[in-house]
Structures are given as structure tokens and as C-alpha cells.
Amino acid sequence: MTTEAERWTPPSGRNAQLQAAGRWWDVVRVPRFIGKRALELLGDDAGAVIENPFDGVLYWLIVPGTAAEWDLSRLPSVEVWGATAYIEVPSADCRRGPGVRWRVPPRDRYLTDPAALLAALLTATREALGPREGASR
Q: What is the pLDDT of residues 71-90, one digit of tens each?
């Protein structure tokens, strides 16, 4: 069965496009200093990742609604954006340059498994910021 998420493709051409979250994917917005470590932890399990060097953030794309139960108090620098958010999505082949680009380009899949991403973010956050109060170890 084909879902809306499976039909999405990044923009073609030379320019990035502003696209709405919540239909094909939700966005997990992570500061670069935490996101770089999360990428290392995920390895080949990372889906496509957008880098916005102007804001110093990385964006992971996940199935809409799958992070609704995340306890973001354990991830104080992480935000999950859904249907009310728009992000700049680079063209399919934009991997360098001064603007928004693919840190991990879309391959056979562009979505990251939310459970794997959550585990990587919890570890990366704990390493960068120390343990959070009330967080299980």
C-alpha cells in the first residue's frame, strides 16, 4: 500500500522550496551540536537530514504524528513540528553551499524511524547537556 509519505519527493531544480510539515512528514528540529552526534549514533539508520547553517540546526523527517508521545522535557533543545510549520526544503541535489542543504541526501527512503531517532537524541542530549531531571537512566 502506498502512503502519502511514500509519494513525496524533494523539489527539483536549483532552488529550495518552503514546504508544509504534517502531510508527508513531521520535522524534528535539532541544534547542530546535538544533531551531529545523533547522526553518528544513527549511522545508516538515518533517513534524509536537512541542514540549515543559518539557524545552526538539523531537520529529520519522520512519519506525521509519530513523535506525539515523546517527552520533550528530556530533550530541551529539540522541537517537533507538524501541520502548523513550514520549513525550507533544498532541491534534491543540493548538498553543499552557503544555504539550506541535505546533510544526508534522500536515498531509497527519506524518513527516519522515530524510535531510533528518539534513542539517538536522548543519548546525544545526555552527552551534550548532562542527565535531565526525572529522566530514566
A: 999 998 999 999 999 999 99
Distance CA 122, CA 114 (A): 12
Question: Using an 8 Å Cβ cutoff, are 19 and 85 in contact?
Answer: no
Q: What is the CA radius of gyration of the chain?
A: 14
**pTM listed for this prediction:** 0.86
Residue of 78, 66, 74 whose CA lies nearest to 115: 66
Give me the chain's average pLDDT, please. Answer: 87
Name which of 44, 45, 51 is nearest 30 in CA terms: 51
- List the grid coordinates of 45: 539508520
DSSP 25: -
The owner of cell 547553517 is: 53
